[in-house]
User: Fold these one by one.
Assistant:
Number 1:
Amino acid sequence: MTRPYNFSAGPAALPQEVLEQAAAEMLDWHGSGMSVMEMSHRGREFMSIRDQAETDLRELLAVPSHFHVLFMQGGGLAENAIVPLNLSRGGNVDFVVTGSWSAKSFKEARRYCNAHLAASNEADGHTGMPDRWQLNGNAAYVHVCTNETIHGVEFQELPDLKALGSDAPLVIDCSSHIASRPIDWSRVGLAFAGAQKNIGPAGLTLVFVREDLVGHALGVCPSAFDYKTVAENHSMYNTPPTYAIYMAGLVFQWLKRQGGVAGMEARSIEKAGLLYDYIDTSGYYVNKVDKRCRSRMNVPFFLPDDALNDSFLAGARDRGLLQLKGHKSVGGMRASIYNAMPLAGVQALVGYMREFAARHG
Amino acid sequence: MTRPYNFSAGPAALPQEVLEQAAAEMLDWHGSGMSVMEMSHRGREFMSIRDQAETDLRELLAVPSHFHVLFMQGGGLAENAIVPLNLSRGGNVDFVVTGSWSAKSFKEARRYCNAHLAASNEADGHTGMPDRWQLNGNAAYVHVCTNETIHGVEFQELPDLKALGSDAPLVIDCSSHIASRPIDWSRVGLAFAGAQKNIGPAGLTLVFVREDLVGHALGVCPSAFDYKTVAENHSMYNTPPTYAIYMAGLVFQWLKRQGGVAGMEARSIEKAGLLYDYIDTSGYYVNKVDKRCRSRMNVPFFLPDDALNDSFLAGARDRGLLQLKGHKSVGGMRASIYNAMPLAGVQALVGYMREFAARHG
């Protein structure tokens, strides 16, 4: 059976091998007689699953030992509150807005700290990278979203805050491109990612936090979201989303078999290159993002006439190309081509786009 | 294949039929070409899953239309903060402590309100129901845990606060016995339950809240945990734990096939009766909880000598009776016999207990 290609922005496609393994193990994990869903989170079976997942994740992303790896819940939108609850100390925080996600982070943080807009690309409709950053001298941290899922804007390199005159730790929301490129941890204080784009099922949030940043939560921070409590309890203070952690672990093992993050980055460059090159040379489709910060993961594009959108989507569905509709705030189309999307899926999409343009162009 | 009987307190056993259906649908849900894990939470496929789950849950528990049903994350320990963040208005709140869980709720709430200990059974080691409640005249709400998973203490009837002279809404943490007995909603303002005991996988929290109690969150309440935001967005403000909702939905359909909550209650009375009757007449095993408030779901029991515990557990494992070790704070054994535990599992346990007592008694 050939499965359709699923371009959903998240929850998103998972590797077929991973789904097949999960189905095969559903009633009996490794002779335990239990589904992973049925295991006590404190039993030795689940603890081995959790520990292996953390070991593989640390290896894949080369996470330094002075970072905690936390398995949390609530996704990126919950972290928009949880990060300032833990790191802001109620002081100044700098935000760089490059699209919807960082704009939401900025807005939510105002509940807990003096959130300062250090730079924004709102004037160009979130299509370029803001060039002038006005950083506070005494910010508790600087927040950026390193890949804007909706607007398709991606940092190709992490900002070097020291070179910009700031000693503050950098916080990155890397939900929608984690594990598609390496992370320069020397520039990062905290990274978070909802799992449902490039890692596994919705309901799991990964947090990587430098040890020295933990232990300063505001008094109103719920215990279950205090990084210190979570770290001290090895992400077992509250019952973790055990099945989502298991699925993420299967994805980590799949990533290792594919050549790890370096393998994924090479594949992503090829896939995104193919799609952007076609769009740019088509004379039909348009992507509005500055070429210097186009996302390798989320490719928004527009047809010459919105009246053709429904016809484009219906034809795509007929060819097994699913979930290509753009976000309502941007319109048009969006192809999310995460790690689990094979090159063949992008080739099939480009083939269909070519055919559609020839028929309607 | 006969699966072992899994007595885990949570995450806990799920019905075999449900796991089989999930395995069969893992790669292709209803011809969609997608796993449920891969679906956009805003797409029509997942929306139909979510809506059906809510409809079935409302029907099973006879939830009145003036209650919101919310699908949230973070489990009971997160709700220990989220409830006072939403309902306390920073004022007085009454807590009735009947075991570890309500004690934790009481402690966490102090961050947000004037938490008052209205009654406690700590003096008798959490084995009875405290008889004298000292309720505040002006409490924002009264919190009880209607089934204490660790101590095995269960309210056989919800307290009638009006009869006790309080006009405050009652908040119940019913995590570990939801869907095993009806809920008298006329006595309830809010009910919450982590899913991982009687509903589905860990990572999903169910919240039922009377409409008039929503919209009063403290300013420091994260948007993702503000009941108003969650309700207005039909639990889609942040990406919900989609797969856990799907699994819960399969459990709801299974519950309906078993005769619903009434069917479950009859089965629970039979299962718990069998186990307690044997314990009480064995002259070997002991359960210390007052018979008037013994839990039908969680049955802690003790051997005459703790030195025999390891031998008991090893023999149980050999007979396919899993996860019977008691919570470390109580010791001894604990059999959690939730909805998914068939009568045959309890019969097998009693058979083994009888055999062990005969050999060692």
Number 2:
Amino acid sequence: MSASPAPQSVPASAAAPGPAAGRREVAAHREAVEDLLRTWFLAHPPAHESIALGEAAGRLLAADVRAPGNLPPFTNSQMDGYAVRTADLAAGSRPDGIPGSVRLAAAAPIPAGSAPPPLLPGTAAPVMTGAMLPEGADAVVPIEACTPDYFVPAGFLPADGTGSTVEVPAETPSGQFVRRAGSDISAGAPALPAGSVLGPLQLGLLAALGLDRVTVRARPRVLLLTTGDEVVEPGRPLGPGQIHDANTTLLRSSLEEAGAQVLRSRILADSPQEFTARLRADIAADAPDLVLSSGGISKGAYEVVRQGLAAADVAFLSVAMQPGGPQGIGTVEGVPFLGFPGNPVSSLVSFEMFLRPALTAVTGAPRPRTEVQARLTAPLGSPAGKHQVRRGRYTAGTVEPVGGPGSHLLHALAASNALIPVPVGTERLEAGAEVTVLLLE
Amino acid sequence: MSASPAPQSVPASAAAPGPAAGRREVAAHREAVEDLLRTWFLAHPPAHESIALGEAAGRLLAADVRAPGNLPPFTNSQMDGYAVRTADLAAGSRPDGIPGSVRLAAAAPIPAGSAPPPLLPGTAAPVMTGAMLPEGADAVVPIEACTPDYFVPAGFLPADGTGSTVEVPAETPSGQFVRRAGSDISAGAPALPAGSVLGPLQLGLLAALGLDRVTVRARPRVLLLTTGDEVVEPGRPLGPGQIHDANTTLLRSSLEEAGAQVLRSRILADSPQEFTARLRADIAADAPDLVLSSGGISKGAYEVVRQGLAAADVAFLSVAMQPGGPQGIGTVEGVPFLGFPGNPVSSLVSFEMFLRPALTAVTGAPRPRTEVQARLTAPLGSPAGKHQVRRGRYTAGTVEPVGGPGSHLLHALAASNALIPVPVGTERLEAGAEVTVLLLE
């Protein structure tokens, strides 16, 4: 533990650039965070990485992908049945309108995965779903529409499968149950646009196109710092006045869920000099896209981040939000910096209200949160001048507040699956009131 | 490639156990899949694994977790301010109702992460958010309510921080801005129930409780097989009549997203003998909880799964769904077996309609799909007797059908984010009709 630094006076009025009231609105701060990241990534676009398809779930496609070949690669049958030449069937049409049929000689069966010989006039070839249509064939008659309506077992035929006949309907349109080569996507056509989130469906298409690797955008690189002399890593014993670090786990897993790569996560003790020196060294070593700290930014006497970055291009301000009011934003060594408050609930709410939406907007991060309308099951009070963010449990159109407003209530947070914002100006919401909640899962 | 096996006759009527019409309803098959897995996991509950917190995102808690200690671990301040003994303040109360105040001697500041000495009567100690309250103190007066309303810089005071005074409001209730030890959760109380999905919020609570490892349920172990002489791994060149394997990628990434572990994924050629021999060997080697195959189960002449498992306890039947009608279900060597059809769209729809809901219901798998109401932007036709499942793009209350009904249309599937079920009996839905769609993300 470092020696305690000198307490520092921070008069309230000097701390808050922004609107006259000294507090920045939630929407304005969200926009500022988005601008900060947008400016950075415009100048420092993510690198491209070629990775195996099996490793690419949740990643973002780096560039447009065009189909390297036709899909399907060859014209094939959509049904189990007989491939026919429809020109052969005209003879079976009856002028009286009664459905006619034609008897054709059965050719050798076409299994999937083989190239069949051309279909001779007057013959029909057994063909299975997905198998290549022989040259000359232009339609498939499903086995159920043929007589006999099953494939004759091999034991009853000569070894080449020929020698029997099959009766098929005369009114079989050309093209019936035929999947043309390239009918799903043709060679050279756009398959997936740059920025696509690669889920099972997109990965399935790339596999079908024969690709076993894919070029994705490098994940945003985040240097994550937790501060505080009182903070101890989970798994280690606590001394007097100490607490275990929840922020590193909360923010690391949230960042990873939103597609970021956490390069380093550290607990830094409360010495501004040490904080600044290590931060500079880590930035030089890791080349992060974002430095995110928690703790040490409000108006107490020991605010290591605020004191350590006093000379940096970072504003420490107050956002009209509760929890999560104190916020730091700016750049350190030219790299985007965000300082979240140290209470775990405050840091998580800051992530969901500011950083996740910015990552989604700027980098196309996967898993954006969704907002839904819900009815409160219990009344909620809120300070008039604050955008209060309460935690709750959403179930089928209703939301039940969980725990109080306290920013240390991690147990209640862990039982929640939604944030309930109560905007500035609303001091009370009754049970049954309709609110817009942010789903956390 | 194996030698082509003999075509086998499979008269349509013999293939479909179940209702009189020969087709099983979608809901009945979903229930059968759930029953199959439930029976297995009741007899073979998942093993417990102790893993690091950083590896546990998305995993399921194996057993109830109780708090090993109080949270917060000690009584601390909710604000930056002065810790006071409210008994000292009574002297400042005024009988005329005008707010009174009391001047107290300033004690040494209490930084976070240290154990302060007891608070002497008549004194007030500067205390920062989260710092331990000294013995004797029973309330915190926020710095903004004090005179002076900032912490006096150390340079202006003796080294021990004493010697100045602070004026605090007399009407300060006992307990104000005090977070009691155990007020979030008390030692021994239930913190998280068995089966909880471990997201950032739950992991944050475990970290705050000092835990760096967590005991989770082993993931369901799935042996994944793709069949077909015509199927080639992505990255390898195609011969005539061959296609690249999309099913392994589609199903593997879907299974992993739903919390399963894919032990082995293999493309097996079209020899029933080889299929059965390798399946038995893999089951013995891998001890899977589920065998999932795609392809080889319908009524063609070359149906390797159906032929290979003819002697096993597996039913091959027809579900009134399109795509995904042919389905295999049963056990092989006592292990649950599901056979999906070979067309990629059919296999994905089978996963979403049958296997994902069963995994959610039986194992508590993360990321269940959600259903939402949406208005169709274009009309849809559907066969009367089938539960047709079309693909579409959901945006803000509307859903646009993407691609036709064809089960080979992977490009359209990859542009979709929703399934649009059109139930049995509905032959046409007009533009503007309200449908219940299954969101795929």
